[in-house]
Amino acid sequence: MSKPDDLPLYLAVYKLTKYLYLLVKNFPKSYKYTLGQNILELAWETLDYTILANSLPNKQKPEFIRQASISFDKLKIRLRLAHEIQIISDRKQAFLMEKNEEIGKMLAGWLKWAEKA
To answer: Which of 53, 65, 80, 106 has the fewest CB atoms within 10 Å, i.e. is most exposed?
Structure first.
């Protein structure tokens, strides 16, 4: 078992979560405690499943990597909605899309590896 700080996926999701806190802080009040809170909860859920999967034996990892991936997919949909209703600027959305692609590739690669193990 690796320490979470040694995992690129953990670090990427952690940094995204930290960025999302700064982003949601500036949401209009009418969205901050609904959509914004849901975005933060899904970011934490993704991070929690990543940590959990990392701590398990290889044969048990795929289930929790899939859960992390599902949570992450839900997060991406909420972020896209926030952009479409103009809470998130185009510039910030471009940054988020870049990070989302990076994290998505890491999750897919880890799942592929775990299913073979």
So the answer is: 80
